[in-house]
């Protein structure tokens, strides 16, 4: 026989033997300071030197079976206390990311879990919250989830939330038959809907962890940065956050090398071809695809021969579905449809190096590529970025990507944001981790933000970038800890903060 004993909001299952309640287990749980009651049930975490850590909290139902390729569904509540001391599974992807010193995670379609690091001592503390979305081109996780350990940021007095979201075909497959299932006649942006579900979970639950749901800063890098551009304009994201940080996020629908989004028609055309490649067609196409294993779906996704071509030819990514994303980012920001909230937007000085390091084009192939991207302007682009060898082609592709896909995106988005909010800050991260020949490469700022172990960095630079990010989360203004002032970004001045060993304000 079982009974339920209650200690405040804590629920614990207690054995009743011969009519006598055995209270030892209940007493132990009642004294556990890490137990927190969420709207679906209680969770127990880990206390690590004053930071309470909760790993693998479900924020949506497993998106499996009939829930595959549908918006995230509510979590089924549980009884008792769920042990939240291990990361949930990584969403299926072609290759596991890996970072030295961090273990690789298992993969499963049941992957909609998030993690919380909180320095709060009471639920009434109302600390600011930072929610992180990982990069990886919407096809994978850039580095394994343990890389994104929120302890370094949480030690500065903020609550950190990291969350999974569906990626690849499972997260971004669009198909006409899926449109017909949807009351919004939309499909394909399930990964963004997962992020919105995680933000709704934060609104509903973070107060129990000592957080303030009215002070939520979203931040993300690469695909996570692009996700935040989308959240700033997506109707479904309004009211779920109060500030945003965009780190090296692609922006333009038709960028120089990176296409940030697909049209609905293109995305559905990809989806139809993908379904046919799996042997699924006709009136039962989606039912057929829902019976395909996650591994088979991943293996059927067209692969690219290199990081460069993978970056250039992403098939499964956000599309202009008219619901989650009403129009291209270009058009939405041009017409000031983004939320007028404080934003920090920037990129790394060498974002293009790692993304183009294996392009392996000769000069003739380079000219053909430019023609395919720039049409009648290809010769002018070649004159600006000339090359006489494969090695030079690689360098010029990196420069094109850096200038056109990242710097121009940052200026466009920050300029638009600055028109409607004076709390707009633009940065360029140029600090080079010692021994890195690729410079301030794409994502290198994350090593300092998350304190990735085993990588030698300048402690002063690391402290400064963590301070900038967390001060912004606390106040909407990153200033206050440097001997210089980071000015608001406007189109007129074009001033930004160069983040390096010695931070400095620079102009256009």
CATH domain class of the largest domain: Alpha Beta
Given as residue ranges, the uncertain stretches (5+ residues, pLDDT < 50) are: 1-30
CATH superfamily of the largest domain: Alpha/Beta hydrolase fold, catalytic domain
Fraction of residues in helices?
A: 25-40%
The biggest sheet, with number of strands, parallel, antiparallel or mixed sense and barrel status, is: 11 strands, mixed
Would you tell me the structural class of the helices and strands?
alpha/beta
**How many domains make up the coordinates?**
2
How large is the radius of gyration? 23 Å
Outline the structure in words:
The structure is a single chain. The protein is of the alpha/beta class. The chain is built from 17 helices and 17 strands. The chain folds into 2 domains: 1-31, no CATH class; 44-477, Alpha/Beta hydrolase fold, catalytic domain (Rossmann fold, 3-Layer(aba) Sandwich), CATH 3.40.50. A hairpin with a 2-residue loop joins strand 1 (2-7) and strand 2. The longest helix is centred in the last third of the chain and has 31 residues, at 390-420. 49% of the residues are buried.
């Amino acid at each position: 026989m079982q009974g339920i004993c209650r200690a405040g909001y804590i629920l614990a299952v207690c054995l009743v033997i011969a009519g006598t309640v055995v209270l030892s287990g209940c007493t132990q749980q009642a004294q556990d300071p890490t137990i927190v009651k969420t709207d679906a049930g209680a969770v127990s975490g880990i206390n690590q030197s004053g930071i309470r850590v909760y790993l693998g909290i479900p924020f949506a139902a497993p998106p499996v079976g009939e829930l595959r390729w549908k918006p995230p569904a509510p979590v089924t509540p549980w009884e008792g206390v769920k042990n939240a001391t291990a990361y949930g599974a990584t969403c299926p992807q072609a290759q596991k990311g890996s970072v030295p010193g961090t273990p690789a995670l298992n993969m499963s379609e049941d992957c909609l879990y998030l993690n919380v690091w909180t320095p709060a001592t009471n639920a009434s503390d109302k600390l600011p919250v930072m929610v992180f979305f990982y990069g990886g081109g919407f096809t994978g996780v850039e580095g394994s989830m343990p890389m994104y350990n929120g302890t370094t940021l949480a030690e500065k007095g903020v609550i950190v939330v990291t969350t999974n979201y569906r990626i690849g075909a499972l997260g971004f497959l669009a198909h006409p038959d899926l449109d017909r299932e949807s009351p919004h006649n939309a499909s394909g942006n399930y990964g963004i809907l997962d992020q919105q579900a995680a933000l709704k979970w934060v609104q509903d639950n973070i107060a129990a962890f000592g957080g303030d749901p009215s002070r939520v800063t979203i931040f993300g890098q690469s695909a996570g940065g692009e996700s935040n551009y989308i959240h700033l304009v997506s109707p479904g994201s309004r009211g779920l956050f109060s500030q945003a940080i965009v780190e090296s996020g692609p922006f333009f629908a038709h960028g120089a090398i990176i296409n940030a989004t697909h049209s609905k028609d293109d995305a559905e055309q990809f989806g139809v071809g993908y379904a046919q490649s799996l042997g699924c067609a006709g009136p039962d196409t989606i039912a057929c695809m829902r019976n395909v294993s996650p591994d088979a779906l991943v293996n059927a996704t067209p692969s690219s021969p290199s990081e460069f071509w993978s970056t250039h030819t992403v098939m499964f990514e956000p599309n202009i579905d008219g619901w989650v994303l009403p129009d291209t980012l270009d058009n939405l920001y041009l017409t000031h449809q983004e939320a007028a909230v404080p934003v920090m937007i920037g990129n790394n000085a060498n974002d293009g190096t790692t993304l183009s390091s294996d392009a392996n084009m000769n000069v003739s192939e380079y000219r053909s590529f430019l023609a395919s991207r720039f049409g009648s302007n290809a010769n002018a682009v070649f004159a600006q970025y000339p090359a006489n060898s494969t090695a030079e082609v690689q360098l010029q592709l990196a420069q094109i990507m850096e200038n056109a896909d990242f710097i121009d995106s940052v200026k466009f988005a920050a300029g638009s944001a600055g028109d409607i909010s004076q709390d707009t800050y633009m940065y360029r991260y140029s600090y080079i981790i010692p021994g890195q020949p690729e410079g301030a490469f794409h994502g290198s700022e994350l090593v300092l933000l998350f304190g990735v172990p085993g990588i030698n960095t300048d402690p002063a630079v690391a402290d400064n970038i963590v301070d900038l990010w967390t001060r912004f989360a606390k106040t909407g203004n990153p200033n206050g800890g440097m001997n210089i002032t980071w000015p608001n970004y406007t189109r007129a001045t074009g001033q930004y903060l160069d983040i390096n060993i010695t931070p400095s304000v620079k102009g256009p």
